[in-house]
Design goal:
Distance between the termini: 102 Å
Number of helices: 9
Largest sheet: none
Number of strands: 0
Structural class: mainly alpha
Order of helices and strands: HHHHHHHHH
Helix content: 55-70%
Shape: globular
Radius of gyration: 26 Å
Length: 195
């Protein structure tokens, strides 16, 4: 057998390269697969959390609307971050995706792009903020930024810490309604518990 010529070696390498390229998904196909797997994960999280939601109720959405919201979150914040945001707040898939980017832009004008992005990632509930009106993203203050830290910190303890925090914040309201000063109120509670 004759030794292959250089031209034959190059031709064979070219054919093998073309075959390999034909078998390897393109970057856009890979992005589609990643987005689809991220969406499937997010959809699973949503369905687990809202398994008993009935049509016509607040958190009920048809799957195409859920996917549209997820794809917009992924486009703005990235695939992995989008899944994490849905894990933190499955209801994020029910928010209006048309507001996501404009609200982030408004937050960015106030806090700067990096702080605004991090703030929304910490508190995905901010995805629900409208673009116009008295509660729009344009009206955000430093409290919005600080509250995002509080939300992120209390999320793992939400079943216990968040209701406890709300109860503590309501103490002045209870004091005002009942007319009983908080020290007497707590003394009465402590006496009732120790009996």
């Amino acid at each position: 057998a004759e030794a292959p010529t250089t031209m034959m070696v190059h031709a064979r390498a070219l054919v093998l390269s073309l075959l390999a390229l034909a078998c390897v998904p393109t970057a856009s196909a890979m992005a589609g697969r990643t987005a689809n797997s991220g969406y499937q994960q997010a959809l699973s999280i949503y369905q687990k959390r809202f398994s008993k939601v009935k049509p016509g109720t607040f958190y009920y959405r048809e799957e195409p609307k859920l996917k549209k919201a997820y794809m917009e979150i992924a486009k703005i914040y990235g695939e992995e971050t989008a899944v994490e945001m849905v894990k933190a707040l499955p209801a994020a898939l029910t928010f209006n995706p048309a507001n996501f980017k404009p609200a982030l832009d408004d937050f960015s004008e106030i806090f700067g792009p990096e702080k605004a992005r991090a703030m929304v990632i910490r508190n995905p509930g901010l995805l629900s903020v409208p673009v116009t009106g008295s509660n729009s993203a344009k009206t955000a203050t430093d409290q919005t930024l600080y509250f995002s830290y509080l939300v992120a910190y209390t999320r793992p303890y939400g079943d216990i810490l968040l209701p406890g925090l709300v109860a503590l914040l309501l103490i002045p309201v209870i004091e005002g309604i009942t007319g009983v000063p908080r020290d007497q109120f707590f003394a009465a509670l402590q006496g009732a518990v120790s009996k």
